[in-house]
Design brief:
alpha+beta, 24% strand, OB fold (Dihydrolipoamide Acetyltransferase, E2P), eight-stranded mixed β-sheet, 16 helices, Gyrase A, domain 2, 28% helix, binds aspartic acid
Length: 586
């Protein structure tokens, strides 16, 4: 037997027992007569003691061991005089009687401690050492828990996990495909799935009724902290359901996960129309942990700022305000800094106007020249601003101003520390537009994917006013992060063909690309719909970290490289010949 116990479980209750442990040398301290070693395994750390007076040879041997050596020891569990109550094993130590070095170790390139001195790339290159560190290990265990509770929930709800193929043909999720050349079909390529979308719909035609899969998906996109070229989805599809059924069921899944994994009770989720999210928060995934809803001082519906001789407002399509509570104390310097922030090309605003409500209730603004106290009071009233509050105003073209104000709102949320990491506000965003116009290509694209059903009452507008058609689609947003999205699908061949037509496919192109699906729809497709959650992202949200990388055992870097195994890499010309591929000089 390699070990009788783990390094995380021995306590005073075991005092006097003879035990055998195995693990890695975390650190050692040589105090002359005594040598201490912290022995680490997945479960924790146990202190080992070697006493010169008791066994000099063993003590000499222990002194020579380096960090990360793999050891097996036998000894007696004893009460410690110098207790460490921060760890479960901190009241005991092992007086070692036998020591075996199972393997030596080179000096690790960074310290294997909770806080390490290793940079990102170095840690990824030696990921197997990084995973020895508690914070990384714990994130992988959290991921496992999330997976376990997802599977048990789905199983209890009668879902069947079905695996779908990885070598397929392009799926239309709007990103670029990864392609795999086929040796047996020279000149032809498989695509890796961006999602199992078409397969899960075919499983509904096949009568599976409730499908799910913890599935790897692949999208060849430029990477950011919250994206990886391969990622995992909780992918689901159901038959004979309506939007309401899906919202209820998956709201319960997420609440179940919060309860089981974090012990947090999530109240019934809020719901918001896409149009309202854009109008009041400037984005389709509002962070509702704090309020700061936009107030339209001037819009199509309302105008309390024009006609005072201030040309900037007079000429603006939209004038938006937010109320930063208790921020009237902001100094000139802070306001100048915010002004520069909104002028940054990423926001592209020409300036920032502010009004602060003084302690005596009077309002002082940066445009006092144009607006008297009565008018400024009207602004304060519209914004529900009270003494001590700061009103921030942006104006310009509608979409641009909304987007910039959405960014400013989040920035103020950060600066005023309103985005509490221990608070979770979950929201459904509903009724997305079905289509998006692409000015460059001069054509409509599906906002979600081309199998999403329009709202039944909007079908008629498909040809007359496609931009006004809303989809029967929904996203789940938690703390400003889109964690999942899905839709009720089209299950009628004629409607599906019609949509392909609006998307600019000729009948032949549609047949070539999606003939298999259109065909299947001839054989009794049930009404169906589904959803997919970004599993890595959900894990990072539960774990409280910005980066999904931390929750992936072996992630890729920002250039899509695995720096540990050094992939992707070149292949030799023989292999390329076999695939019938000739490389241009790159
Ligand atoms: N296949 C979609 C996606 O990956 C999700 C869905 O519509 O179920 O975003």
């Amino acid at each position: 037997m390699y070990r009788t116990n783990t390094c995380g479980e021995l306590t005073l209750a075991n005092a006097g027992q003879t035990v055998t442990l195995a693990g890695w040398l975390q650190k050692s301290r040589d105090l002359g007569g005594l040598t201490f070693i912290d022995l680490r395994d997945r479960y924790g750390i146990t202190q080992l003691t070697f006493n010169m007076d008791v066994n000099a040879a063993l003590c000499e041997q222990a002194r020579k061991l380096g960090r990360e050596f793999v050891l097996q020891i036998t000894g007696t569990v004893c009460e410690r005089s110098n207790k460490n109550l921060k760890i479960p094993t901190g009241e005991i130590e092992i007086n070692v009687t036998e020591l075996k070095v199972l393997n030596a170790a080179a000096t690790p390139p960074f310290t294997i401690e909770d806080e390490t001195d290793g940079g990102d790339e170095l840690r990824m290159k030696y990921r197997y050492l990084d995973i020895r560190r508690n914070p990384v290990k714990e994130k992988l265990i959290l991921r496992h828990e999330m997976m376990k509770y997802t599977r048990s929930f789905m199983d209890a709800e009668n879902f069947v996990e079905v695996e779908t193929p990885v070598l397929i043909k392009s799926t239309p999720e709007g990103a670029r495909d990864f392609l795999v050349p086929s040796r047996m079909n020279p000149g032809q390529f498989y695509a890796l799935p961006q999602s199992p979308q078409t397969f899960k719909q075919l499983l509904m035609v096949a009568g599976m009724d409730r499908y799910f899969q913890m599935v790897k998906c692949f999208r060849d996109e430029d990477l950011r902290a919250d994206r990886q070229p391969e990622f995992t989805q909780i992918d689901c599809e159901m038959s004979f359901i309506e939007q309401e059924d899906i919202l209820n069921l998956f709201e319960n899944l997420v609440r179940h996960l919060f309860k089981k994994v974090k012990g947090v009770d999530i109240p019934e989720m809020m719901r918001m129309q896409y149009a309202d999210a854009m109008r009041y928060y400037g984005c389709d995934k509002p962070d509702l942990r704090f309020d700061m809803k936009f107030v339209e001082l001037k819009s199509e519906a309302n105008d309390i700022v024009s006609g005072a001789g201030f040309g900037v407002f007079d000429n603006a399509e939209l004038v938006l305000a937010i109320n930063a509570k208790n921020a009237a104390v902001y100094t000139r310097k802070q306001l100048d800094e915010l002004t520069e922030w909104v002028k940054d090309p990423r926001r592209g605003m020409s300036g920032l106007i502010y009004a602060r409500v003084e302690n005596d209730g009077t309002v002082k603004s940066s445009v006092d020249k144009f607006y008297d106290q009565e008018k400024l009071q009207a602004w304060a009233k519209a914004c529900n601003a009270e003494a001590g509050d700061l009103i921030l105003i942006l104006c310009g073209a509608t979409n641009k101003t909304r987007k910039a104000m959405g960014d400013l709102r989040l920035e103020m949320g950060n600066r005023l520390q309103l985005r509490d990491p221990n608070k979770y506000i979950c929201l459904w965003v509903l009724d997305f537009p079905l289509l998006e116009w692409n000015e460059e290509d001069k054509r409509w694209y599906a906002m979600h994917h081309p199998f999403t059903s329009p709202l039944p009452e909007h079908i008629e507008m498909l040809h007359t006013n496609p931009g006004a058609v809303n989809a029967n689609a929904y996203d789940m947003v938690i703390n400003g992060v889109e964690v999942g999205g899905g839709s009720i699908r089209i299950h009628d061949r004629t409607l599906q063909s019609k949509l392909f037509e609006v998307l600019g496919f000729t009948a032949d192109e549609a047949k070539e690309k999606f003939g298999f699906l259109l065909n299947a729809f001839e054989y009794g497709a049930p009404p169906h719909g589904g959803i997919a959650f970004g599993f890595d992202r959900l894990c990072s949200l539960f774990g409280g970290s910005e980066s999904i990388r931390d929750y992936i055992a072996f992630p890729k870097n920002n250039s899509g490289r695995d720096v540990m195994i050094d992939a992707p890499g070149p292949v030799n010309s023989k292999e390329l010949d076999m695939l019938g591929i000739k490389l241009a000089n790159i």
